[in-house]
Amino acid sequence: MEKVDILSTLAEVALEREDIETSLNDYQKSLSILERLVEPDSRHLAELNFRICLCLEIGSKPQEAIPYCQKAISVCKALLQRLINEVKSSGESTTTPAISELDEGDEVKSSGESATTPAITELDEGVQQLSNMHADKEAEIETLTGLSGELEKKLEDLQQLVLNPKVHSLRNPGNGGSQGKRRREECSSNCHELFSDGYCY
Predict the structure, then answer these.
(1) How confident is the model at residue 201 (pLDDT cuts 50, 70, 90)?
(2) Angle, to 10 degrees, between the axis of helix 62-93 and the axis of helix 95-104?
(3) Total domain count for the chain?
(4) Which of 24, 56, 101, 136 could pair with 65 as two cysteines, CB 3.0-4.6 Å apart?
(5) Residue 181's domain spans which residues?
(6) Within-domain flag for 155
(7) 112 inside domain
């Protein structure tokens, strides 16, 4: 994972230097490594695909950016679906095992003290942990829902740029100079805003 982070940082630096090709090359190497290290619905994969999408957009290649944006969307939706399923299944299964564990621990210790007191304490702690995990997952679901919407808007923008390249040349009159620098900073900022929140499941 360290190599992925290093390559991503190098790609960001290259993008700041306006070296789109080097940036793109580093991001793609990073993605190639990351795909072997994480689950197919990892938020890190969505972020890296989105960064490549932005790099291609900055490099005036919206047609090539579209598949990366689509991949980021599909990864987000897969993760979203997994979390929704986990929340549903954890809500259904948490009470039954807890009650049966309590019934099994209902024996009396030799000192006359009930064995259920530690069991209840342990059960309370377990329920609290499950509750916290459940709340974290629900917050991540909310974040990913918003993120998916933002990515879909980006996809629509890219598709419009492909259909009407004149709009792109008016919006992005060149990659150099202050206009290009502002565009790169805006794209980088968008990426950080979209992917900085969350738990990186």
Answers:
(1) very low
(2) 30
(3) 1
(4) 56
(5) 2-102+121-196
(6) yes
(7) no
